[in-house]
Amino acid sequence: MNTQTVKVDNGVDNDDSYQQVVDCLQNGGVVAFPTETVYGLGALATNLDATKRIFEAKGRPSDNPLIVHIGTKEEVSTYAEEIPETAIRLMDAFWPGPITLIFKEKPGVIASNVTAGIGTVGLRMPNHPVALKLLKLLGGPLAAPSANRSGKPSPTKAIHVALDLDGKIPFILDGGATGVGVESTVIDMTATPPAVLRPGGITVEMIEAVIGPVRSEVNAEESETPRAPGMKYMHYSPDAPVWLIEPDSNQIERAVDKLMNAGKKVAIIGPDELRTDKSQWYFSTGTITDPSQLAATLYNALRLCDETEADVILAVETQSEGMGVAVMNRLKKAADGKRFSSETE
Ligand code: TXA
Ligand code: MG
Q1: pLDDT tens digits for range 40-81
Q2: Per-residue pLDDT tens for 114-150?
């Protein structure tokens, strides 16, 4: 299959480009498109054959449900039942935006593989002009996981999608780099109190300011049956092993010395303030005082590391609050728990 990248910059008359993509989706095809978080790989969520193609293209395990993207809040009642009042408040506060709400599924509407047979459905209204226009023209729901091969960092640029899925999908809508850079927050509204299953673009502090206390089940991913099935798979891994390291220049120097003495080539992903020319590569993630800059640049930096000959990647930690929570969650997965400290042999 030939993959066509279609540029849809704002301000240009591109109705024809959208129409060929919408036709493809209506005929059961899959298409990559930008959202405010990361690029998604979409198919009509009510079409079982179409949504099967998503799993095939990504190499995604079938027990991992997909988020359903919708263009209006009103559609929620078409796909979900028993919508709590707290959910309406979250939608009013944050939609369109980077938060996915899990509801009881209305039976028989969404294709069975989208919800992986667990009886709930995750809905989100993305805050991106391309995604919203696509949803409006399609007039239906788009099941869409991140548009990477399973196990690779989520794509924040169209070129990342092309690198992973070239030849496997017909179209990539190129709307430029995404803004938030990490995926949406996933919150289970069927639990009391609601449970955050994945930290993301909307922080727990922001959620609690609207609906009061919520529970965090983010670490439930270590358990046997995680609530957001996707959280049990190791994600976001570049080719070389990733080690976390604290934001301390002495510590970083020690680590680089040690690794280089052992004959290793080192790439560092870290803030402007800690830049060093001791390592072979240093990929900057913005200022240390703003974790949202790290969120916006992290996946691109992990992919840039893949283009180097680094044997080891050191990733500098950030504070675990606000957007830092989502970033640290992704970094810990990329590192698979490995952390460099003075005691590390
Ligand atoms: O920002 C995002 O959410 C991006 C963009 C494309 O919208 N999408 C995304 O999808 O990150 P994906 O498939 O890579 O991650 C979806 C996560 C997985 O951890 C999955 O297990 C969980 O949401 N999830 C989806 N539906 C669920 C459900 N009904 N119950 C529990 N978890 C669910
Ligand atoms: Mg993903």
Answers
A1: 999 999 999 999 999 999 998 888 899 999 999 999 999 999
A2: 999 899 999 999 999 999 999 999 999 999 999 999 8
User: What residues does 195 pair with on adjacent strands?
Assistant: 188, 215
Ramachandran region, residue 139 (left: φ > 0; alpha: ψ -120 to 50; beta: rest): left
Same domain, 142 and 284: no
Residue 187 domain flag:
yes
Residue nearest to atom 20 of ligand 1 (CA): 230
Residues 202 and 273 in one domain: no
What CATH number has the domain bearing residue 278? Answer: 3.40.50.11030
Give the alpha-carbon dihedral of 287, 289, 295, 299, to 10 degrees.
40
Report pTM: 0.95
The pick from 30, 149, 186 for probing ligand 1's pocket by mutation, whose C-beta has the most ligand atoms within 8 angstroms, reads: 186
Residues 149, 286, single domain; the answer is no
> Which residues have CB under 6 Å of ligand 1?
35, 37-38, 40, 64-67, 98, 100, 102, 115, 118, 120-122, 126, 144-146, 183-184, 186, 197-198, 227-231
For 308, the domain range is 242-334
Residue 212 to residue 204: CA distance in whole angstroms: 10
The two structure tokens encoding residue 173: 């809508």
Distance between CA 19 and CA 16 in Å, rounded?
Answer: 5
Co-location of 284 and 184 in the same domain: no
State which of 181, 216, 251 marks the end of a domain: 216
- Say how many domains are in the chain: 2
Q: Are residues 181 and 43 in the same domain?
A: yes
